[in-house]
C-alpha cells in the first residue's frame, strides 16, 4: 500500500512537472513560437525568450528558423549574463555555419562575451585595480576582434571592435606589467627582464611599456650588468612615464 502511495505521488509530481513545462512553452506551431520569442526579445524579457528559443531549437533543429534561433539565443544568453551558454552557442554556430553571412556578428558577440567574462563587477564597483587577474578571456576577446577585422574589414562591427581592441591591449599589457613586477619582487631578475622587454616589443604604445623600463633597470642593477644598465637608463629618458 505504501509503495502504491509513493508511486502515485511520483506520478503526480511528474505530471505536474510536465504540465508546468507545457504552460511555459506550449506545443504551438513553430511560426507562432518564433513570433512569441521575438516579442520577448524586443521587450527585454530574456528568460522567457530563452525558454521559447530553446524549445524551438530542440523541437525543430533543422527547421526554417533554426539558424536565426541560435543567433537569437547567443544574444539572449549574453543579455541575461549567462556567458557560459552564450559562448557555447556562439562556438557551435561558428563550427556548424562557417560561411554564414552573419559570422562577423557572431565573432563580434563572442568578443563581447569574453570581455564580459573578464570584467569583475565587484572590483569595478569599489574601484579596485586588479590588473593581475587572469587575462585569458581578454586575450580571447582580442583574438576574436582581430579575426573580425581581418576577415570582414568592412563589417558594421569593425569600428567598435577596433576600439575595444585598444582597450584590451592596455588590459593585457597591464597584466604583463604586474607579472614583471612580481618577478622582480621575487628576485627572478631574468624573468622580469624578459617580461618587460616583451611588453615593450608587443605593446610599445602603452603606459605599461613605459612603466616596464624601470623594472628592467632594477633587475639589471640587481644583476650588476653595467652596459644594460646604461642602455636602459637612456631608454627611460626617451620614454618617461606620463
From TrEMBL:
Gene Ontology cellular-component terms listed: Bam protein complex
GO biological process: Gram-negative-bacterium-type cell outer membrane assembly; protein insertion into membrane
Gene3D superfamilies: Tetratricopeptide repeat domain
Subcellular location: Cell outer membrane
Record keywords: Cell outer membrane, Lipoprotein, Membrane, Palmitate, Signal
Domain of life: Bacteria
Tagged with keyword Nucleotide-binding: no
SUPFAM superfamilies attached to this UniProt entry: TPR-like
Membrane-protein topology: Lipid-anchor
All residue ranges annotated as the Outer membrane lipoprotein BamD-like domain in the record: 27-235
Chief place where the protein resides: membrane
Family indicated by similarity: Belongs to the BamD family.
Role according to the record: Part of the outer membrane protein assembly complex, which is involved in assembly and insertion of beta-barrel proteins into the outer membrane.
Assembly information from the UniProt record: Part of the Bam complex.
Alphabetical list of PANTHER family matching this protein: OUTER MEMBRANE PROTEIN ASSEMBLY FACTOR BAMD (PTHR37423:SF1), SOLUBLE LYTIC MUREIN TRANSGLYCOSYLASE-RELATED (PTHR37423)
NCBIfam families in the cross-refs: OM_YfiO
Name of this protein: Outer membrane protein assembly factor BamD
Species assigned in the record: Vibrio palustris
Amino acid at each position: 500500500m505504501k509503495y502504491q502511495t509513493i508511486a502515485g505521488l511520483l506520478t503526480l509530481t511528474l505530471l505536474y512537472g510536465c504540465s508546468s513545462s507545457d504552460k511555459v512553452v506550449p506545443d504551438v506551431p513553430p511560426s507562432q513560437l518564433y513570433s512569441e520569442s521575438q516579442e520577448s526579445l524586443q521587450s527585454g524579457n530574456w528568460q522567457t525568450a530563452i525558454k521559447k528559443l530553446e524549445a524551438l531549437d530542440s523541437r525543430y533543429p533543422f527547421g526554417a528558423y533554426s539558424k536565426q534561433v541560435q543567433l537569437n539565443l547567443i544574444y539572449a544568453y549574453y543579455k541575461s549574463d549567462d556567458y557560459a551558454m552564450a559562448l557555447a552557442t556562439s562556438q557551435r554556430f561558428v563550427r556548424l555555419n562557417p560561411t554564414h553571412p552573419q559570422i562577423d556578428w557572431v565573432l563580434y558577440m563572442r568578443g563581447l562575451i569574453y570581455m564580459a567574462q573578464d570584467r569583475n563587477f565587484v572590483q569595478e564597483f569599489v574601484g579596485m585595480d586588479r590588473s593581475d587577474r587572469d587575462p585569458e578571456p581578454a586575450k580571447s576577446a582580442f583574438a576574436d576582434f582581430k579575426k573580425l577585422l581581418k576577415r570582414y574589414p568592412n563589417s558594421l562591427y569593425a569600428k567598435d571592435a577596433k576600439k575595444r581592441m585598444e582597450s584590451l591591449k592596455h588590459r593585457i599589457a597591464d597584466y604583463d606589467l604586474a607579472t614583471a613586477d612580481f618577478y622582480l619582487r621575487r628576485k627572478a631578475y631574468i624573468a622580469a627582464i624578459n617580461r618587460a622587454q616583451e611588453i615593450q616589443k608587443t605593446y610599445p604604445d602603452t603606459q605599461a611599456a613605459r612603466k616596464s623600463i624601470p623594472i628592467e633597470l632594477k633587475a639589471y642593477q640587481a644583476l650588476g650588468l653595467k652596459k644594460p644598465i646604461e642602455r636602459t637608463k637612456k631608454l627611460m629618458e626617451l620614454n618617461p612615464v606620463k
